[in-house]
Each structure stands twice: as C-alpha cells, then as structure tokens.
Amino acid sequence: MTHSSKITPMNNGPLIVDSPPNLSGAAPAELDGKEKVALCRCGASANKPFCDGAHAKAGFESAPDHSKIRNAPLDYSGEVSGVAVTISYTPVLCTHAARCQAKAAAVFDPKKRPWIQPENGTLESIADVIAACPSGALRVSFGEQTAQHMTTGDIAIEVEKNGPYHVSNIPLDAEFNGAGASRAKYSLCRCGLSKNKPFCDGSHYDAKWTDDGAGAAD
After folding, report:
1. What is the mean pLDDT of residues 93-100?
2. For the chain, which terminal residue's Cβ has fewer other Cβ atoms within 10 angstroms, N or C?
3. Which CATH number is correct for 69-142, 2.40.50.180, 3.30.1490.20, 3.40.630.30, 3.30.70.20?
4. Regarding beta strands 74-80 and 23-25, do their DSSP bridges make them parallel or antiparallel, or are they unpaired?
C-alpha cells in the first residue's frame, strides 16, 4: 500500500477511505485492490465496521461540539535515571485504550494522584508506552527535547473492539483538534458519540457502547 491512501469524513456520513490498507484488530478485512471503502462512524451500522447507510435513519450529525471538551494538555514531570522527563497528556484525544497502564502500571495509574508519575518508570518503558499510545494523547520530552510522539512508518487502520479506529500514517482530510495532536497516528470515532468528531474522545467508554448494540448518534 502506498501513501495514496486517504481518509475523508463525509458530512453526516461515513469515513471514506481511498486506497485502503487491510483492516486489523477486532474486525480484520482484506481490502487489497479496493479503490475505496466506507467505514461506519455513526455507531448504528449492522455491518460494522462498514457503512450500510444507517446514519441517515439514525439522524447522525458529524459536527463536533468543542464547547464540551477540554483541549489543554496536562504535563507530568519527574526524573528518571538522571534525566528530566515530562509526559504531556491531552485528555480530549484519549480513547481509554489503556495500553499505557498495561505496559507501565507503575507510571500510569488512574487510582493515584497524579495519575502519571514518570519517576516510577524507566526511560525505555516510558518510550515504549508513548510509541504504543494509538491516539496521540501522550507525548514525551527527555531532557531539553521538545515534547514528541513516537511513531512507526506502518500504514494501518486497526479496529478496536467496542472502540475507535486507530489510524497510522494515512492523511486525514479534516481539521485536527487537540493540543499536540499527531497527524501520523490518531483515533477516529466509531460510536457516533464523540464531542470531538471525527476524533475519538473516549465517549464510547463512558457510554459503554458496544459493537453489538444498536449504537447511538447525537
């Protein structure tokens, strides 16, 4: 797959993917050779992750409501192996994939205050978490570096079970909202509930949305 891949969110409709890569994750699909596919983002399709036109019946509206989201990043600093480390977290971009907790529970623990404590980890484990964060909600600076994401060159769309699309290295024809948002990796809403469309803001998690449910559009 070449960089001719592109994602275009249709107004009050699906995500159109030109030259799509194969889908991975909870809904793998071989798409090699297809010129384009339409992916559901209203949460109501009976053929998820693909669009079946349910958005029209559901009255899906794709306009975001930025008045109800917190855009500013939060910074958490500590010293690790003699190096000053600052982890920047943008809540509105977080999908609650919890890969940070799975990989470095001593650093990322929602039960603690602050919930991110860099000093409890290693430089390697922190870098591993930043690379694994699929949404771009986490960035890190080591020493005097500017806060950065860590990405690979893979071109991919991963479908998370009961969650969003995690996209890597595919241009998105949309305005990026969220402090420090990455254009190389981002997560797109699949449930129709996000206030930061087309991006996921974790609303599926709060609403306990599932692939098997009827879905909900706002």
Report:
1. 96
2. N
3. 3.30.70.20
4. unpaired
Residue 31 makes CB contacts below 8 A (sequence gap 6+) with 20, 21, 22, 23, 37
Confidence at residue 5, expressed as pLDDT on a 0 to 100 scale: 95
Q: What Cα–Cα distance (Å) separates residue 76 from each residue in 48, 69, 84, 119?
A: 38, 20, 11, 10
| SS3 state of residue 16 | strand
What would the two tokens of residue 85 be? 């480390």
- DSSP count for the chain of H helices, then E strands: 4, 10
Q: What is the pLDDT of residues 6-24, one digit of tens each?
A: 999 999 999 999 999 999 9
Q: Is the dihedral of CA 143, 145, 148, 152 positive or negative?
A: negative
